[in-house]
Automatic annotation (TrEMBL), chain A:
Full protein name: 2Fe-2S ferredoxin
PANTHER family for this protein: FERREDOXIN-2, MITOCHONDRIAL (PTHR23426:SF65), FERREDOXIN/ADRENODOXIN (PTHR23426)
Similarity section: Belongs to the adrenodoxin/putidaredoxin family.
GO terms classed as biological process: P450-containing electron transport chain
Source organism of the structure: Mesonia algae
Co-factor(s): [2Fe-2S] cluster
A molecular function GO annotation: electron transfer activity
Domain 2Fe-2S ferredoxin-type: residue ranges: 4-109
From TrEMBL, chain B:
MF-aspect GO terms: ferredoxin-NADP+ reductase activity; flavin adenine dinucleotide binding; NADP binding
EC number: 1.18.1.2
Subunit structure: Homodimer.
Coiled-coil residues: none
Protein species of origin: Mesonia algae
Cofactor annotation comment: Binds 1 FAD per subunit.
Known cofactor(s): FAD
The protein, known as: Ferredoxin--NADP reductase
Family, similarity comment: Belongs to the ferredoxin--NADP reductase type 2 family.
InterPro entries from the UniProt entry: FAD/NAD-bd_sf (IPR036188), FAD/NAD-binding_dom (IPR023753), Fd--NADP_Rdtase_type_2 (IPR022890), Ferredoxin-NADP_redctase_2 (IPR050097)
């Protein structure tokens, strides 16, 4: 079991620093759900297929993340409240090198 | 008034399979769905995506799963009210229910099964100040009647298939079509993208990218929109339009069901999972992704199981005095309401000399 610390700022602006497992094939959206940092039904609606943008978050740390693929880019092109640092949590796998990652959940739309 | 035995709210995989299990018990079903086609998320969000955890299907596309279910339930002749959202429920003195849709269609049944998934799919509304003031006064999130746009100036926003396809369609109907998208790239069928380019080149579609609609203006009704190009104030365009159609896809919302007096937890309906998936209101069941109970998993295969047990309970409720034992389809076959009968071929008894 190997965990990394990640910090999530929820939609009520509350900061949570949590342990995220790197060995469970989890993505950031799933970590947020497992800690119930956003109500069920308001995040990960499509299940993680980059098809709903309900897991959009703003990356606040300069952590290096996997490059954005076409599906994620296309979804963000249609999502609301998109900023330059927007990513979809479901497309970010939790990897050991992401220790210290800090993100803020985008508003529900 | 539509009358049926089990009124199913939601025509996704769980709702569709309920028709089959009910049919084996000779109960008739009618389904209501806010989407214009059956299949729920499987048809609307990911028809081309494979599913790997349907028992005995090593791999099946979500769209094919829906087609198979429709084929499986055909003989039980389900009724459909599509493109309408279940709005209100009334319990009558005899314990039966009347469910009315947002368009006023009334349905009467002794049992209601909510198989509503994540809720009804509603258009995603862009966060533009005042936009609510112009809804149905020039701003429409869904195109219901294209004739509304005949000889009008229309601006469409979005970058997916529906934005492309409606731009193409309305290019021949409206007097002026402008398509605004945040990126230069569109995500849609290739021939739709090519067609929009052709129409742009001959001046039938006015394409503005990368740009966003920033403001909507008007008095009684919509008169103009402010388009911001390249995210630069210096590149703002005030466009006179009669209609603004934002097409940013759909997102599910629990919606009016949340006000039916059902016990809700985590955006889902609490049910009794040790027995029959009934809600706190006797006669109303909740099955599939829409329900919750300890250990709940939102899987299609779990929805199928829940539907099966729920139908047994519904039967008892509708026919409290009838004795019944479950029959295997291999033994009893499947007798449709349409007169068809499927059954296992009889074994031949023949001596070997």
């Amino acid at each position: 079991m190997s965990d990394i610390k990640v910090t999530i700022i929820d939609r009520d602006n509350v900061e949570h620093t949590i342990d995220a497992p790197t060995d469970m094939a989890m993505n950031l959206m799933e970590v947020v759900r497992s800690y119930e940092l956003a109500p069920e039904g308001t995040i990960g609606v499509c299940g993680g297929m980059a098809m709903c943008a309900s897991c959009q978050c703003y990356v606040l740390s300069d952590t290096e993340l996997p490059e954005m693929q076409d599906e994620e880019e296309a979804m963000l092109a249609e999502a609301f409240y998109v900023e330059d640092n927007s990513r979809l949590g479901c497309q970010i796998p939790i990897l050991p090198e992401m220790e210290g990652l800090k993100v803020k959940l985008a508003p529900e739309s | 008034m539509i009358k049926t035995d089990i009124l199913i709210i939601g025509a996704g995989p769980t709702g569709l399979f309920t028709v089959f299990e009910a049919g084996l018990l000779k109960l008739k079903c009618h389904l209501i769905d806010a989407l214009p086609q059956p299949g729920g998320q499987c048809s609307e969000i990911y028809p081309k995506k494979p599913i790997y955890d349907i028992p005995a299907f090593p791999e099946v596309l979500a769209g094919d799963l829906v087609n198979n279910l429709m084929e499986q339930i055909k003989a039980f002749e389900p009724g459909f009210t599509l493109g309408e959202r279940a709005q209100t429920i009334d319990k009558l003195d005899d314990g039966t229910f009347i469910v009315t849709t947002n368009k006023g269609t009334k349905h009467h049944a002794p049992v209601v099964a909510i198989a509503g998934g994540l809720g009804s799919f509603e258009p995603r509304k862009p966060p533009i100040a005042n936009i609510a003031n112009f809804e149905d006064k020039g701003v429409e999130y869904i195109i219901r009647d294209p004739e509304l746009y005949r000889d009008k100036k229309v601006v469409i926003a979005g970058g997916g298939d529906s934005a492309l396809d409606w731009s193409i369609f309305l290019a021949d109907v409206a007097s002026e079509v402008t398509l605004v998208h945040r990126r230069n790239e569109f995500r849609g069928a290739l021939d739709s993208v090519d067609r929009v380019k052709e129409l742009k080149d001959i001046g039938k579609i006015n394409l503005i990218t990368p740009a966003e609609i920033d403001q909507v203006n008007g008095n009684e009704k919509l008169e103009s929109v402010l388009i911001r190009k390249n995210n630069e104030a210096s590149e703002e365009i005030l466009l006179e339009v009669d209609h603004f159609i934002p097409l940013f896809g759909l997102s599910p919302k629990l919606g009016p069901i949340a006000d039916w007096g059902l016990e809700i937890e985590k955006n889902a309906i609490k049910v009794n999972n040790s027995l029959d998936y009934q809600t706190n209101i006797p006669g109303i069941y909740a099955i599939g992704d829409v329900n919750t109970y300890p250990g709940k998993l939102k899987l299609i295969l779990c929805g199928f199981h829940e539907a099966t047990l729920m139908c047994q309970s519904a039967y008892q409720r509708i026919f409290p005095d009838k004795k019944y034992v479950m029959k295997y389809t291999t033994v009893g076959g499947v007798t449709g309401f349409d007169g068809t009968k499927k059954e296992a071929p009889k074994a031949v008894v023949k001596a070997i000399n």
